[in-house]
């Protein structure tokens, strides 16, 4: 196999099955890279060194006995909002959290596919913000530019994959929390259909706006991890029909009608697309047209969709805050947002949930004329570490909306979206674009993303900065 510093999950799985490498060797090297990068990138909240090595040895025994699995023996990471048996689930919060007794359903399915969970990655407090830093664990940094954030809230997973510490990782996305860090770290990030990957032990997460998804350097790896983690627990509220997304990676998407959407949805504060990001998205649109697709400017009819997002997001946050062992240690912004969520958790929340069907019809009307929407993932490049962490609640919201106004409507709708790398601005800051589709359109989006990847070869670019290079060399 290629060096495991640069090999993806699919290549690792192939080499393991062929006997070219052992799981113990792959996991040892991943743990060495994580240890080397932790002082500079700080991607992990929990590193499961001893447990992961034991699991790798068990995988090697299965491989030697002729067993096979999609990820048997492959090291991966999961975000620290997912339960891993024997580990705490702090979800970015300060204070001591007890270890949980059982894996969450997504982790259970990864293990059933043979994956070795090497650790749990950092996330901002209860996943609220597009940066990954806080008093509980410090600041997670961007492997492309360590002075900048990798985004959030799945910033630890994104940093770990972008730096080559692990070949793929799970994250979660409640307002862009997979797609934003994927955009800002030059990764493929899949936010799947609501319910595609279980959120159990929660029947749904954040009143249905948050879903679990995948981050990887290639479409193949992101789809492989998605298929491995997909499926439902009997207690899940959302149970979409099963799909095999990996099969779409090599499939010709055909000649598609693509709506180029550059206008941010309505927000309470101004949001403006940075001209540098706009140029990258337009360049991607030109490549899609050169590949034979019809690309036209057209905007979804979002209307006042934000009025339905706020009650769901804040009521969901209030539910999480009630479960935190030491709520007095939480950020003032978290406590204020939870207070608002308790106020909106009655009639406003019920109205917001009922509005989803109307939004499906109104936004979905665009798909009578188009197959896919192409939009910026963020309005701006990644900000510097520390830019938002000490702001008050109102200024944080303003800065967050200004930088990231594009991703969250698809969380309200519950439909799939895929971030693809769109290039670099200034001296090498990554930015991304979203491919967005209607319900259950993951295979189409993945097929189109794979076609773009074959054309753009984005997976051949690696972070040039010493922190990432030192970790890969470890």
TrEMBL record:
Residues 26-445 form the Amidase domain. Belongs to the amidase family. This is Amidase. The lineage of its organism: Bacteria, Bacillati, Actinomycetota, Actinomycetes, Kitasatosporales.
């Amino acid at each position: 196999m290629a060096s495991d510093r640069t090999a993806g999950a699919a290549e690792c799985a192939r080499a393991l099955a062929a006997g070219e490498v052992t799981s113990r060797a792959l996991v040892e090297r991943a743990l060495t890279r994580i240890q080397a990068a932790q002082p500079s990138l700080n991607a992990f909240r929990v590193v499961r060194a001893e447990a992961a090595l034991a699991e790798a040895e068990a995988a090697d025994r299965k491989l030697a006995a002729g067993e096979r699995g999609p990820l048997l023996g492959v090291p991966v990471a999961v975000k620290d909002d997912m339960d891993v048996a024997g580990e705490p689930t702090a979800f970015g919060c300060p204070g001591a959290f007890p270890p949980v007794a059982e894996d969450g359903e997504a982790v259970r399915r990864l293990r059933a596919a043979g994956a070795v969970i090497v650790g749990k990655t950092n996330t901002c407090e209860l996943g609220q913000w597009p940066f990954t830093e806080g008093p509980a664990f410090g600041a997670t940094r961007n492997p492309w530019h360590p002075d900048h954030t990798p985004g959030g809230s799945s910033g630890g997973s994104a940093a770990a994959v972008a730096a080559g510490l692990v070949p793929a990782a799970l994250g979660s996305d409640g307002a862009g929390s997979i797609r934003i860090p994927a955009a800002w770290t030059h990764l493929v990030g899949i936010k799947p259909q609501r319910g595609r990957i279980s959120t159990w032990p929660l029947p749904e997460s954040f009143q249905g706006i948050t879903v679990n998804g995948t981050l990887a350097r290639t479409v193949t790896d992101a789809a492989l991890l998605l298929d491995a983690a997909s499926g439902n627990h009997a207690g899940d509220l959302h149970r979409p029909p099963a799909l095999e997304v990996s099969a779409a990676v090599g499939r010709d998407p055909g000649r598609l009608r693509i709506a180029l959407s550059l206008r941010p949805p309505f927000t309470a504060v101004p949001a403006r697309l940075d001209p540098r990001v706009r140029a990258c998205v337009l360049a991607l649109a030109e490549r899609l047209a050169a590949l034979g697709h019809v690309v036209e400017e057209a905007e979804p009819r979002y209307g006042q969709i934000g009025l339905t997002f706020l009650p769901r997001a804040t009521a969901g946050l209030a539910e999480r805050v009630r479960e935190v062992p030491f709520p007095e240690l939480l950020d003032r912004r978290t406590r204020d947002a939870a207070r608002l969520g308790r106020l909106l958790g009655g009639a406003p929340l019920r109205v917001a949930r009922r509005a989803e069907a109307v939004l499906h019809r109104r936004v979905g009307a665009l798909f009578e004329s188009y197959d896919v929407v192409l939009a910026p993932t963020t309005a701006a490049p990644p900000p510097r570490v520390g830019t938002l962490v000490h702001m008050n609640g109102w200024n944080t919201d303003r800065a967050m909306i200004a930088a990231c106004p594009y991703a969250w409507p698809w969380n309200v709708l519950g439909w799939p979206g895929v971030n693809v790398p769109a290039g670099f601005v200034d001296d090498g800051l990554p930015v991304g674009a979203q491919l967005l589709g209607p319900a259950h359109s993951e295979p189409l989006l993945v097929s189109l993303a794979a076609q773009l990847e074959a054309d753009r070869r984005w997976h051949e670019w690696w972070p040039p900065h010493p922190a990432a290079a030192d970790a890969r060399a470890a």
